[in-house]
Every structure is written in structure tokens, then in C-alpha cells.
Amino acid sequence: MTRERKRDEGQWALGSREPLNDNERFKAVEDPLRVRERVEQTYAREGFASIPSEDLRGRLRWWGLYTQRRPGIDGGRTATLAPEELEDEHFMMRVRVDGGELSVGQLREIAALSTEFARDTADITDRQNIQFHWIRIEDVPEIWRRLEAVGLSTTEACGDCPRVVLGSPVAGISPDEVLDATSAIREIVDRHVGDPSLSNLPRKFKSAVSWLPDVPFQIHDIAFLGVEHPVHGPGFDLWVGGGLSTSPRLAERPGAWVPLEEVPEVWAAVAGLFRDHGYRRLRNRARLKYLIADWGVERFREVLETEYLGRPLVDGPEPVLPAAPVDHVGVHEQRDGRYYVGAAPVVGRVSGSRLARLADIVEAHGSGRIRLTPYQKLLVLDVVEPEPLVRDLEAIDLIVHPSRWRRSTMACTGLEYCKLAIVETKDRAAELVAELERRLAGQDTDITVNINGCPNACARTQVADIGLKGQLVVGADGAQVEGFQVHLGGGLSLAKNDEAALGHKPRGLKVAATDLPDFVENLARGYQEGRTDES
Ligand code: SF4
């Protein structure tokens, strides 16, 4: 049952144009995209101290820039310090890689920028982006210039706007694909990233377009997933209103089938509807999922058709989903008879120097294309003889035949750089993977572990078998220590395409960070024994 919200939620469509919070205010004063001029003309010349707060902590996000956490500040002080005490004079910079597509030339430029400007940092995120750290404002115009010269950008990589568009890492090469969605992704990006009519949305707007269900489409604001219509043939099924964070919700199907060439139009219509009808009063109720929760998908579709498209959509069937997420790690045949090779760094952590070596290897094996995956992995496409490539990748610790633990563990940025973090994540995840590989060598398990530094769930706490949400917990000696609240039994699969996919949070189940290897080992052993008993 749906219910109409009565109070003023700041919806533009209802005439509410008075900004109701600080974010809405700075967006109303000026299109955040325009901050770029000031970066190039003033801030890069006059330095960090010249940047006023509204730009520093607000508009710069529209160009992929967040101030990063000052080193040495523990998670216990995250909520108590003022922003200027918490932040360093450096930035995290997010480079959007729409569809996860990279050429070897783009990879080389990312590698070079990392070593020259980012202290050799580069992380593959679980949204197919690359993140640098330690960026100085003085270097930002040069980085933009060089990224844009190779067709990459940081435009709207963060902020209340259309974020990177996820796509299948094997679009255009998979034998299982019927329609390649790449053209739709490119059209959305070309037309609407940096489009001032969509640069002030109520909140972030996450998108995915893929024939194959190898992107986590259920947790996006909008997703188009491949489906065969019995009359019209191959097209895409529309999903809307997904998102995790503190109030997780899976996307729903309005039941509409969209042909490939109409995907950008429908995407823009949904983005416009969100801009006009989305809630702008409270930041934590501004994602599209809250509007869908109140309206229901039937009304959403009706408003979309009547007010935004001016025509009805075609009713469509539900797509068939896989039993488990597909990560493409390993060696796989392409539809042209060549191979793609999927490799696993540990929790997406690579570096500029490693990416430079990767670019050499990719070229030496006759490939020019790389893809990033939504599981913090990477693929090398178009390989004729995969085994020599596998050896060269593994020589730089990009493992093609990894343990299940390396393969199925993800981690967000965490305390090392993130201002919102409460606990450390990346190093802890690397230690956990190494420890579990040692303790459970030879045991085959398909358990997924997602490690998050705070409740924001950037590494998808609620959709892993073991989801870990960073918080302070009471340690053995009674003092507060870094730890995690545990979420169990989540996962995006056909069998659980309902609330069960979000798992559950056993009351009071928390673990200190130092006990994490014991905790996961015990769960894994119990799970294995349960499976053995059932067989
Ligand atoms: Fe930062 Fe929290 Fe997101 Fe991790 S989940 S990257 S700690 S905001």
C-alpha cells in the first residue's frame, strides 16, 4: 500500500523551491558544475586555504573531489571533530569509467597520473571507478587536462547528479549477450553528464545498463537489464528505486520493456522525474527509493509516462536472473573465439606503478582493452593465448585463479582516507584474506565478505553472506575498540530477489576487528559442515 506524504518535502514539482537544508542552499546559489572555473583560475593558483567551505565540502564533489581524512585521527573522533580538524589538505579524486571500459592508452594515463600526482595510489572501486588519493588542488587542472585528452573525466563522479553508469564488463564480447548496451551508456554520458538541467538532483543518481545480470542492478536508482520480449524481441527491463546505505531497499520493476535505442530517453525521463518530484528536505530521505516507497511503482510509471515521456511504455516480462553474481574472474572464451582474462587484486587495491606494468603486459599480449568490474576486479580482453598472460598477470599479483576469499572479499575506502569512517578496512581486508587463505587452504567456499568502514555501506554491507559495518565495539578489556556489526545471509540472486536478499542483522552480533579472522573462519567452518551434513 502506498501513502502520500503530506508535509513539504521540498519537491520542486509541488512548487517548493525554498532550499530546506545546507546542500540545497549551495546548489540553489550556483550550479555546482561552475566551480571548475574557480579551481582553474583561483584555487589551483592560491592553494587549499583559498577554497571557501561551500566549494571545498560541497561543489567540488561535482568534479569528483572529496577532502580526505587527516592521517592519525582514530574512528572514535569521526563524529566529534569539526570538518577542518578532520580533513587533510589533500583530496580523493574519483575518475569515472562508465561501463568499466578502458583502453590501454587510458590505463597508461591513469598510471602516470597516479605516480606523478597521487603518491602511487589507485583503487578500483565497486562501481567501476578509479580513485586516487593525496591529490593537491594545485595539480587538479593538469590532471583534468590529461584525463580529458584520453577521453576520461571526473565530471559528476560524486555529488547530487548522475554518477558513473555501470555496464557489463563483458559487453560486446560475451557469447551470452544478445544486445550490447554500450551505445546506450555512451549516449547517456555524452548527453547528460555535465548537463546543467540534471546537475542539481535531490541526491546521487546511480545507474546501470547491461544485457547480462553481472552488475548489481537491484541496488541502483535506475537500471536497465536485458530481457527478451515475446513479441518485440530483445530489449531492457526497467528497474527503479534501489539503494543501500542506512535504509536499504531493492529496486522494483514498473514492468516496462524498453528497446535499446530508447534507453537514453527513458533514463533522462526518470532522472527528470527524480529532479522534480524527489524529496529535498532531508538528505537521508532524498534518494529516489523514498519516493518509490511512498508512491509505489504503478504511480511512478504513470507519472513517468504522462508527464515525462508523453507516451505509454510497452509492458514487458521479468528477466531471468542467475543463481549468484557473476564476477568474470578466470579465463573465458569470447564470442569471437579469443579470450578474456579476469584477475583479482586484493579488494581493488592496485597502484599507478602496477597499472603501468599491467599496460605493458596487456600490450605485449596483443590486447588494447581492459574492463573494470563492480566487484573490484579487472579484465583483459581480446587475448589469443591466455595462459602466458595469466602467468604475467600473476607475476604482478593480479591473480587469475585466486582463492575464493580473495575473489569474494570487497572493502570500501575506510579510515585510511575517508572522513566518515569509523574503522580501517582495506589493510584489514588484505590481512583477513591472507589469514583465511592460510587457515582454510584447500576448502572451497562461496562465502562473500563485504567490509565497510561505517554505516554508509559503500562496499554493499547488506548484500554479502557476511556484511561488516564498521563501528566501535567493546573489547575484551572493556575499552572501545574498532569492530563491526555483522550482517548475515545477504546476496543478490534469483533465489533471493526480495527482502531476503538484504540478509539480516542478528541482534547484538558484533565482532572486534582483531577477532575478525577467527569469526569468519568459524562461520565458514560451520557453513561447510552444514553443507556436508545436507549432502
Ligand atoms: Fe567511507 Fe563509510 Fe563509504 Fe566506507 S562505507 S567509504 S567509511 S562513507
From TrEMBL:
<dbReference type="InterPro" id="IPR006066">
    <property type="entry name" value="NO2/SO3_Rdtase_FeS/sirohaem_BS"/>
</dbReference>
<dbReference type="InterPro" id="IPR045854">
    <property type="entry name" value="NO2/SO3_Rdtase_4Fe4S_sf"/>
</dbReference>
<feature type="domain" description="Nitrite/sulphite reductase 4Fe-4S">
    <location>
        <begin position="407"/>
        <end position="532"/>
    </location>
</feature>
<comment type="similarity">
    <text>Belongs to the nitrite and sulfite reductase 4Fe-4S domain family.</text>
</comment>
<feature type="compositionally biased region" description="Basic and acidic residues">
    <location>
        <begin position="1"/>
        <end position="10"/>
    </location>
</feature>
<dbReference type="InterPro" id="IPR005117">
    <property type="entry name" value="NiRdtase/SiRdtase_haem-b_fer"/>
</dbReference>
<dbReference type="Pfam" id="PF01077">
    <property type="entry name" value="NIR_SIR"/>
</dbReference>
<feature type="domain" description="Nitrite/Sulfite reductase ferredoxin-like">
    <location>
        <begin position="87"/>
        <end position="150"/>
    </location>
</feature>
<keyword id="KW-0883">Thioether bond</keyword>
<keyword id="KW-0408">Iron</keyword>
<dbReference type="InterPro" id="IPR036136">
    <property type="entry name" value="Nit/Sulf_reduc_fer-like_dom_sf"/>
</dbReference>
<keyword id="KW-0004">4Fe-4S</keyword>
<feature type="domain" description="Nitrite/Sulfite reductase ferredoxin-like">
    <location>
        <begin position="332"/>
        <end position="384"/>
    </location>
</feature>
<feature type="domain" description="Nitrite/sulphite reductase 4Fe-4S">
    <location>
        <begin position="158"/>
        <end position="311"/>
    </location>
</feature>
<dbReference type="GO" id="GO:0050311">
    <property type="term" value="F:sulfite reductase (ferredoxin) activity"/>
</dbReference>
<protein>
    <recommendedName>
        <fullName>assimilatory sulfite reductase (ferredoxin)</fullName>
        <ecNumber>1.8.7.1</ecNumber>
    </recommendedName>
</protein>
<keyword id="KW-0411">Iron-sulfur</keyword>
<dbReference type="InterPro" id="IPR006067">
    <property type="entry name" value="NO2/SO3_Rdtase_4Fe4S_dom"/>
</dbReference>
<comment type="function">
    <text>Catalyzes the reduction of sulfite to sulfide, a step in the biosynthesis of sulfur-containing amino acids and cofactors.</text>
</comment>
<keyword id="KW-0560">Oxidoreductase</keyword>
<dbReference type="Pfam" id="PF03460">
    <property type="entry name" value="NIR_SIR_ferr"/>
</dbReference>
<keyword id="KW-0349">Heme</keyword>
<keyword id="KW-0479">Metal-binding</keyword>
<feature type="region of interest" description="Disordered">
    <location>
        <begin position="1"/>
        <end position="23"/>
    </location>
</feature>
<dbReference type="InterPro" id="IPR051329">
    <property type="entry name" value="NIR_SIR_4Fe-4S"/>
</dbReference>
